[in-house]
Design brief:
The chain is α+β, with helices and mostly antiparallel strands. The chain has a single domain, classed as Nucleoside Triphosphate Pyrophosphohydrolase, CATH 3.90.79.10. Helices cover about 25% and strands about 35% of the residues. It has 5 helices and 11 strands, in the order ααββββαββββαβββα. Strands 1, 2, 3, 4, 5, 6, 7 and 8 form an 8-stranded mixed beta sheet that branches. The chain has a 3-stranded antiparallel beta sheet with strand order 9-10-11. Strand 6 and strand 7 form a beta hairpin. The termini are close together. The relative contact order is 0.20.
Length: about 200
């Protein structure tokens, strides 16, 4: 199964163009009159259970300065000396939930996403063999939980909602799972992941 996934997320097979302007990482200098994006990366951790794959997610603490309480992938901003989004995602994963880079097999990348909060986020797909040994950082992570990959692949579970902001309405994806309300960037990445796997 993981060989099949590796083929899906290989840049040549996936259709991902690493040189496309939207996938340049670190984010390029800002055009005149535009705010520069900050470069970030997240790990999309696929846990390879015998009973079926699951995606690991975290819930951020309510004390975080950005996106408090939201559902997220482990990840964060580029640090000096890091030359790839994979390095950033692996470091952040170890810091946030305690999974060492040596336990993660990188399968590939997904298209980068620019956020309204000023980040260019590169999702990195990583395969992890159980059992897991987690040590969440209590200052950043309130909970760690898993969602079956089958749930994410099924489009029935992708819901569009509308929210009004500053007099304008916008649509965004939501994936409600048990007591968790997954939305925002995390939901956008999961919807894209589901589409890729359905086409494979």
């Amino acid at each position: 199964m993981h060989d099949h996934l590796e083929k899906i997320f290989n840049s040549e097979e996936s259709g991902l163009d690493p040189y496309a302007p939207e996938n340049v990482w670190p984010a390029p200098a800002a055009a005149e009159g535009k705010k520069k994006l900050r470069s970030a990366a997240v790990l999309v951790p696929l846990i390879n259970y015998d009973s079926g794959m699951k995606v690991l997610l975290t819930q951020r603490t309510e004390t975080m300065p950005d996106h408090a309480g939201q559902i997220a992938f482990p990840g964060g901003g580029l640090r000096k000396g890091e030359i790839s989004p994979e390095q950033t995602a692996l470091r952040e994963t170890q810091e946030e939930i305690g999974i060492m880079a040596s336990k993660i097999k990188i399968l590939g990348r997904m298209n980068a996403r620019d956020t309204g909060t000023g980040y260019r986020v590169m999702p990195i797909i990583g395969l992890i063999q159980p059992p897991l040994s987690l040590t969440p950082d209590p200052s950043e992570v309130a909970k760690v939980f898993e969602v079956p990959l089958d749930f994410i692949v099924d489009p029935v579970n992708h819901r569009l909602e509308t929210r009004s902001e500053s007099g304008r309405s916008r649509e965004y994806y939501v994936l409600p799972y048990n007591e968790y309300y997954i939305w925002g960037l995390t939901a956008r990445i999961l919807v894209e992941l589901g589409k890729k796997l359905r086409k494979a």
